[in-house]
Specification:
Layout: H1 2-23, H2 29-45, H3 50-70, E1 72-77, E2 80-89, E3 92-106, E4 112-120, H4 128-135, H5 142-169, E5 174-179, E6 185-192, E7 195-202, E8 213-218, E9 222-223, H6 225-249
Helix pairs in contact: 1-3, 4-5
Amino acid sequence: MEKIESVVDSQLSQISQLRKKLSSLQERKNLLTNALVGLQQNEQKSTHSKKQKNTNINTLSTIRRAYRLTGISQVQVGGYRGARIQTSYCGKFFESFYIVFIDTEEAGRTRIKKSKVLQHTIPYFIPISQISETYLSSQSSEPRFISIIQDYLNAFVARREIWKETLEKYSNFIFKTSVSLSYDVLDFKCKFSSRRLHVTVKTNDLLSVNPDYAIVVLSSMGRVIEWEDSFCKNGVLESLKMIQSHSNEQ
């Protein structure tokens, strides 16, 4: 019995360590504190019997697997229900964002409960108000609403990480860079042999990763339509790889 409980305690300790690593990504300290307090209170109420411990482990393991698959987990914040959305790109997890919901009642012949966003940490450029008006009505609609917000957040993180990778790979090739906060507009110049290449790309849909509009101008030559098409079709990294290859051939 002692050996089994020792193994169980070891597994619970590993789960506790995993929680601490995940919580370190949270941006709002007050949200983190409330969420952890709720979890600790639930843990203190559990008994120390073998059956209860095994049940807790199985439940936490299920939650952990589901969380890893979706990047979305439920939290309690000051008595309100909320969602924690952890962003990811290329198999790596990045920062987390939070949405806290509140139920309201609309006056009328029959009282209808509606779900509304009470607080959130979503970046300002993601149109959460418009999205909530379209997709958020009741508590049952929250998963769909959260999923759409997650798509916006992951697209944002993907554009940002692609730009970071671009700067790392082509630091000696591009210069005079300018980007928007949502990374939907990139403007930079490239050293193309003895000439200069000016590139501006724009992503009109914030749910998209690759740009859908590009202007590429080569000094003494003008716009290069073929390269503009490449940015929209292949993205920034692949297009710069191709352009740099042409530059080296000059």
